[in-house]
Amino acid sequence: MNDWLIFSSNAFITAFALYCASFIAYAIAVAGKRWSNREPAAHTARWGRIAFITALLGWAAHLTFFFTRWIGGGHIPTSNMYEFMTFLAMAIMFAFIVVYLIYRNTLLGAFTLPLVIIIIAYASVFPSQVQPLIPALNYVWLKIHVTTAALGEAFFAVGFAAALIQLIRVVDLTTTDKAGVRARRWTEFCLVIIIIIIGFLAAVFIFRGAGYHAEFRQESVLIDQQGQAQTSVKEVKYGLPPIVKPYNSDVISMQPFMGLQQPLFEAPSWMNGVNAGRKLNTVIWSVISGLVLYGLMRLIARKPLVAVIHPHLTDIDPDDLEEISYRAIAIGFPIFTLGALIFAMIWAEIAWSRFWGWDPKEVWALVTFLFYSVYLHLRLSRGWQGTRSAWLAVIGFLVVMFTLIGVNLVIAGLHSYAGV
Amino acid sequence: MIENSKCECGHQNPVGTVLCESCGKPLFEDSQNDADTPLEMRYDGVARRSQKEDPAIIDRIWSFFSSVKIAIILIFLTLVGASLGTIFVQESTLINLKTTEEFADYYEETYGTAGLIYHALGLSRTYESWWFVGLLVMIGTSLVICSLDRVLPLYRALSKQQIRKHLQFITRQQVVYTGRIEQEPEAWVAAAAQQLKRKRYRVWQEGSALLAEKNRFSRWGPYINHIGLIVFLLAVLARGIPGWHMDQYVSLYEGEREPIPGTNYYVQSDKFNLQLYKDEELADNQKGTNVVKLYETKAKLFECIDVCDDPTKEPVLRQVQQHAIHVNSPLQYKGLKLYQNSYRQHIRLISVHPSLMDTATGKSFGSFDLMMDNPKLTYDVGPYKIRLSDYYPDFGFDDQKRPMTKSREPNNPAFIFRVSGPGITGEEVYSYFPLPNASSKDFQESLNAAFKEAGANTGRFTFKVANMFQQGKMEGVKYSEFSTFLNVRVDRAMPYIWVGAAISMIGLIMGFYWQHRRIWLRIDDGMLSLGAHTNKNSYGLRADVASTLGKTGITVTPKELDNRRNVR
Ligand code: HEM
């Protein structure tokens, strides 16, 4: 590793630490309003400022990471999953700063920073070493395409954060009518999903820290394009204790974990894709550790998380949140269209000889675009503003995340960014 | 429903008008019911073509396609359809399969029952299916009709705006202020006008009434975007016009020249070049694997200028273009593009340069060039004449143990020569297998022995490449190490696609990064009524109004101006 890259990875750690600090400051700004002998508005303003400045410093460190890695690695760091995800986090911070400067809303920081932190942590799951470019990626339009698409998605992310606050803000903790209870449940469910993602990260990093590994030999039968069956034997490595082992596989080595000597189940036969067994195992671990985490939080709080957060949000109008969410999406939509569709088409035309090929990643970029156009058109009619539109903003971000990560995990296509 | 669309101000409005075109007063009873709620300001309440009193069939179709609700449904169905197509691979990516049964088998074997169902439902061809294309066409129709339906009325409404609006119109906007003015009305209005101009509003004043407006052009953004989308969709459809779209693959070994079907062009690969990353360039988890750094085909494009259609004669070619084709750099010539698609590492003989030798002494009588494709039929070597009597490019035996060729590729070429000349009575027959491997040497020897037994030769001659291996290199043999696959494309719709995309982008930027803002105010008996409207970013509008009022002596926070909030 050359000096630039060493410097770069230090800058990355600094950025991460500053983001965490900023998040804590935001949490104090929002949650500490009612602490004794404080004037709430002054408290929020003071800590909000501290938090924002910390976030800015973090972003500066993040930019430093980006550019030094660019110099050290010899190409723009957006060419594998680690680099792309860290870039996305950086773009989200940029979008946040832009939207914050328009609306000066402290809550937005309190919700965007954890999102950024989660994405950076997720990026760190992937190998972080600089990899040389394969021919298809070695092109200027690709850089333009990836960066603008990520920037558009970053604004959608900020729109999502604002929409989530809005949803928590508008839940009625007292009603018992059906619609009210349903809204409460679904909002809580959103939080549970986020905690499951945190659970996934916790599991990965704890077991990685402990040096856990297990290995399997899997025999798989593939039908090639001539329709011939081909058997192949592959080794599958696990970083998490195998609750599920790959379909049709034998243990090569496995450290016991809390009495787990042997995998408990075998993945079903239809899960025969590349590393499908490991992915299933990871999902199971994420759900388990997420639910454990959630259970602990419930135990400490003794009420739903929505009810914990909701009281801190009462001094902001849902309309303001709705406006922020919509505005962020409205800023992001043209950027996304330009980056994820038009630039993508220009590049595909040059690299793959066709501007559009219905590759899964392309299709999902289109689906994202169509989804947000549905969102925008629905907002033209009045019944779809407010809470419904907030739900759409939340679902829209799920679509974005599926396009970025889900497609790679579940569907493989030409966009063969590094596997998980 | 018969409506009286004449307003109290005397203006006769078209049927379907919501807000009087002239003074802005709400025309419907029911919209006056909840007299506090903000008005529906879309298209300023003017009538659209789709709102007719007694619609004929054409009007019904028109209003179907002009409905935003229908548009949303269409877009949503397209979205769902498109995502269904990504569940399993599409047939179009399986280039080796042809028939429906082959596809059905593939889906069943690969994905089980779900795959079979997927294929049976036609989802394996989602994007070419009638329903998917139909949805796109319907969206296109809807785009055309909805734009026509709205853009003219909106244009009319915005180009003839009255300055003094009905009080109800003003007090039911999304941003509202009412309060006493101490100053002389006209002077106050003039001061406010001054402030608004400073914020780059265009201002019209009529006594104590005022209209301020900015960024009207951004209202055309969505329509320009829609026009761009229409152009784009039309361009996509235009690819169906014969000759507008071509998509073919050509496979070439190094040195090979092939015609491009359906055109007057020939393409030749001079050399294929593959570079791998060195181990020290790779990340730790990649070391020891072959990561490709670059692959390119040094290609030449020829145009046929004479004898193009006579298969018995060689065409006359002229080189028109030369380019090293690699992944992000196609060869281009007059709308024809050749892309690097993929490659195959595969040794293929091109020619050998064997000698005719005396078996006993090993002395060479001379040598000749032997092509694997279209070899010449006669050769003069030293004093001898050699005639090619049979050629099997891919030598093998059929069921009855007769020699035959398995394909036209020179995978295991075999030549049968007849030699005549001094000291030979008639002709002697020899076989020659140029591939330097043991099995073809065996074949060559046993066949020649069989010929000798039958009396067809005396064993005097041997065909062989002299000194084939020299310092680790092969001499006297030309071969290609790689076959390259090129994708040949013509796409005459591309310029229109880019134009459509560009128009769309301009529209999006206009519509989203600027907002149309309007402020109406009037003073009646010292009472100021102010209403303001924008199609988005009412936050910015409230800030504008609050700061204007502030500069004219009325302190008010932006939040207090929000009429929507006050209602809730
Ligand atoms: C994929 C196709 C489409 C896309 C990407 C698209 C995009 C957009 C966008 C970005 C806006 C601006 C929204 C806003 O200002 O908040 C808009 C507005 C609009 N769209 Fe579409 N649209 C599409 C199809 C359609 C169709 C088929 C219709 C037909 C009814 C339609 C009707 C409208 C209308 C009426 C507006 C409002 C115009 C105005 O504000 O004056 N759109 N569209």
TrEMBL record, chain A:
Keywords: Cytochrome c-type biogenesis, Membrane, Transmembrane, Transmembrane helix. It comes from the Bacteria. It is found in: Membrane. The keyword Transmembrane helix applies. Coiled coil: none annotated. It is a multi-pass membrane protein. The keyword Transmembrane applies. InterPro entries: Cyt_c_assembly, Cyt_c_biogenesis_CcsA/CcmC. The chain crosses the membrane at residues 6-29, 50-72, 84-103, 108-126, 146-168, 189-207, 283-301, 328-350, 362-378, 390-414. Residues 79-196, 320-415 form the Cytochrome c assembly protein domain. This is Cytochrome C biogenesis protein.
Automatic annotation (TrEMBL), chain B:
It is found in: Membrane. Its main location: membrane. The keyword Cytoplasm does not apply. InterPro entries: Cyt_c_bgen_Ccs1/CcsB/ResB, ResB-like_domain. Signal peptide: none annotated. The chain crosses the membrane at residues 70-89, 130-152, 223-241, 496-514. It is a multi-pass membrane protein. It comes from the Bacteria. Keywords: Cytochrome c-type biogenesis, Membrane, Transmembrane, Transmembrane helix. Residues 68-545 form the ResB-like domain. This is Cytochrome C biogenesis protein ResB. It comes from Cohnella kolymensis.
